[in-house]
Amino acid sequence: MGALLAFPLLLVALGVYNIIAFTAPASLGVTAVELAMLSDAVLELSWGDAVILSGLMLLAVEVAKAIRAGTGAIVRHVVSLLVFLAALAEMLLLEQAATATFFTLLAICLIAVIAGLAVEFRPGPQGLSMRAGS
Fold this sequence. Notes:
This protein has one domain. The protein is 61% helix and 11% strand.
């Protein structure tokens, strides 16, 4: 169970993006879902939008994992930072990652790092609380 908690879920969203970007990059802009609105307008969500939405949902799970105290908290923070740095390197070095969709995923990864640190090192009743041994 500890290894599952340490697994960075945002890797799933980044992996799905990479599969799409390296096999069929044009499909990131293809409409995945059309939703009819009451105003008779049609909301079109592309596959790129779907990847971003999945990243946001996984971010919520990552934040919930960060709230959980335990000895693996530092490991989760380090792994989260490594995922962000790897995604940053990918964006800077690979043409397929130089898109607005990937940039948004990169921002989600950064938010996961910041949120994890903010939750872990939030002030407690006695000042700075480091819960790594809890």
